[in-house]
Amino acid sequence: MFENLSQKLTTTLRKVRGQGRLTETNIDESLKEVKMALLEADVNFRVAKAFLRSVKSRAIGEEVQGSLTPGQQFIKIVNDELTNMMGASNESLARSENGPTVVMVVGLQGAGKTSSVGKLANYHAQKGFSPYLVPADVYRPAAIDQLRILADSLHLPCHPSTKDQNPVEIALAALESAKINNLDLVLIDTAGRLHIDSQLMDELHQMRQLVNPQEILFVADAMTGQDAVNMAKSFNDELDLTGILLTKMDGDARGGAALSIRAVTQKPIKFIAVGEKLENLEAFHPERIASRILGMGDLLSLIEKVEHNYSQAQALEIQDKFRRNEFTLDDFRDQLRTMRKMGSMKELMGMLPGVDSNLLKNAKVDEKQFNRIDAIISSMTRDERQNHNLLNGSRRQRIAVGSGVAVNDVNRLMKQFTQMRKMMNKLSKTQDPRKAMQMMKNMMPPQSRSFM
């Protein structure tokens, strides 16, 4: 996500950071490179032009001239303006004061509307909502069945729509059903088209008028760049959207849609989909995205991922096990599985401040290695997982055969595991944050240390 843009901007701004004094000349030179980076990222030309004008206006004023570190202040201005361009802050769904909150999900065919409805339902169910999924796309083959299957997988109710019904009547009936069953979030999956047409818009106009939704979310494919921006503008002109949901953000290395769509439509990006799984939906935080683009990491999102997967009680229990030197291979496997739910290693490392994006791009992180580690540990008996000291030569030979790896792989894992236990035992007793950070860095493999 934003990989290409991030590399170019961090390289450009690294030159500025070392400047003891900024002049209009070197500001112009830097902004010229920033402009090229934005245009290559498929950012709307007018949006890029307005962004550069704002940065230059602030940079040549007293704001930078009076700063003790002009280079760093310039980077702060770029960060602020990137944040403003994307909407300044996160905006959650508007809530209905009376009755259920109604969300119409609209967009072109193929953008990912139906799967986005499932992701929205899963996301808000975890936040205490009781979602009701409504299949109102009676045109696309299997659209109704697809949403019903998603609802079943989430154990959430789905309205019993049929292909011969009118979409507007489906939405009205679903709203009444939600009221009767005390469901507080109605998510309507509307029909899409391969292009905008009058029939589609007339149907959506009628639905909006009769259902009176609190939200009309436009689902856009981030990988289509300016096409997504243009479609969002067209839908907004017709329906007065309340927000945007960008899909396939994990496959978009440029980021032009995310950087342009807010400025063009004046409507906030509320959510981004960062994978195919139902849990791969995130609230869009402009300030965090700007920080990631500029190579400053995104610790808040990383912390949220950790908090979502680890309870405080679990964290304290693990910490206590490390302190008592009782951390087992069972615990290690559980932590490994939980960590994998949070995303790929490259994604998680990209959220750490100070990680070099150029090195991260070229890093070869073997995600399959985690599968091999899981297989090795799973091939052990319960006693062996609880007490790794039982693993003599013959046992390791058996485990290697059972997990389909070489004995050397088992030996290497056990060496790393025992070293980690010792280091984490020391770390859990360390009060000095600087010393703890150095110890954590020493725990990382050599190729990972170079990122920091």
Give a description of the structure.
Helix content is 58%, strand content 8%. Helix 3 packs antiparallel against helix 5 and helix 20 packs across helix 21. It contains 23 helices and 7 strands. It folds into 3 domains: 3-85, SRP54, nucleotide-binding domain (Four Helix Bundle (Hemerythrin (Met), subunit A), Up-down Bundle), CATH 1.20.120; 101-296, P-loop containing nucleotide triphosphate hydrolases (Rossmann fold); 300-449, 434 Repressor (Amino-terminal Domain), CATH 1.10.260. It is an alpha/beta fold. Residues 443-452 have low confidence and may be disordered. It has a 7-stranded mixed beta sheet, sandwiched between helices. A hairpin with a 7-residue loop joins strand 6 and strand 7.
Strand order in the sheet with the most strands: 2-3-1-4-5-6-7
| N-to-C CA distance | 20 Å
Q: SSE order, as H and E?
A: HHHHHEHEHHEHEHEHEEHHHHHHHHHHHH
* Oligomeric state, counting identical vs distinct chains: single chain
CATH class identity of the largest domain = Alpha Beta
Main features:
452 residues; 3 domains; Four Helix Bundle (Hemerythrin (Met), subunit A); 7-stranded mixed sheet; Rossmann fold; flat; alpha/beta; 434 Repressor (Amino-terminal Domain); 7 strands
List the helices and strands and how they pair.
Layout: H1 3-17, H2 24-40, H3 45-59, H4 62-65, H5 70-85, E1 101-106, H6 113-125, E2 131-135, H7 143-154, H8 167-180, E3 185-189, H9 198-211, E4 215-221, H10 226-239, E5 243-247, H11 256-265, E6 269-273, E7 281-283, H12 286-293, H13 299-309, H14 312-323, H15 329-341, H16 345-350, H17 357-362, H18 368-378, H19 382-386, H20 393-403, H21 407-428, H22 433-443, H23 446-449
Parallel strand pairs: 1-3, 1-4, 2-3, 4-5, 5-6
Antiparallel strand pairs: 6-7
